[in-house]
Amino acid sequence: MCGKLVTVILPAYNEEDNIQRASQTIAAVLEQENINYELLFVNDGSKDDTWEKILAESSKNSRVRGVSFSKNFGKESAIFAGLSEARGDCCAVMDTDLQHPPEKLVEMYRLWQLGAEVVEGVKASRGKESAAHSFAAKCFYRLISRAVGIDMSRASDFKLLDRKAVNVLLTMREKHVFFRALSSWIGFKTAEVEFEVADRAAGTTKWSTWSLVKYAVRNIASFTSLPLQIITFLGILVLIVSVVLGSIALYQKAVHTALDGFTTVIVVLLFIGSIIMISLGCIGYYIAKIYDEIKGRPRYIISEKCGK
After folding, report:
1. CA neighbor of 302 nearest in space, from 85, 12, 47, 20
2. What tens digit of pLDDT does each residue of 158-173 get?
3. Taking Cα atoms as reference points, which of 48, 28, 172 lies closest to residue 105?
4. What is the C-alpha to C-alpha distance for residues 258 and 256, in angstroms, rounded to an integer?
5. How far apart are CA 75 and CA 89, in angstroms?
6. DSSP states of 204-265 as a string?
7. What does pTM read for this prediction?
8. What pLDDT shows up at residue 42?
9. Which range (15-19, 101-105, 126-130) has the least confidence?
């Protein structure tokens, strides 16, 4: 092996069926290209034998290392734990299920050698998704793209970062991080590598519809204040509606054509009440995020490590 070291970070949650396959496949690709590497698996509090599989791979290949959390902290925490523990001159992040093609790592590494400091893996397509999921994803990335100022419609967690970029990310102290957006937000010399999302090598996705909704809401709140601006817009809208309805009511009163009944009043009150409750819920969510930040708890807790 020659050249500078690349650390491949592989977050893993209940991926016992994919650890060996990922380790051997990625290692074979990089060794064939004579790229100096280490594989760093981050066990995100898995409930299966993921950690035991990582230990087994580490005993067989000295270039495989592992970190295990005390419980499940989420993929973002696993990525940042990997960045913190990585020894490489550059770091690549990819999925353990091999939906990110390992052969693209070589292309990313070569672009980094040519001077790119952030190499983005962008999706040629989103793979197999339902219509509802695809629509929701488009709405989510439209909001994030507006916040970041960069088109993230095809963004992914599949990236390669120079050590300089990694160090900048590690200085960010917020607890609720969105790696996919932050790695674009920091800037630096950027290149792109297009890839097709492959089918999972084994097992099933760990993302339910509800978990994806929570993921989207959490990351929107952590990266943009746009929902609070929407509240302002709704307030203006309610004001306009109130002025119009009030003007109509006063005119009818003046010309003695006002009708008895409370239908309009009830509808207006329900409309305004709904807007108020939605607004309070949105503001409350942001306050809860502030509360989580000021508690100062760590993003993750490491219980075990393996590898040299």
Report:
1. 85
2. 889 999 888 988 888 7
3. 28
4. 6
5. 23
6. --S--HHHHHHHHHHHHHHH--HHHHHHHHHHHHHHHHHHHHHHHHHHHHHTT-PPP-SHHH
7. 0.68
8. 92
9. 126-130
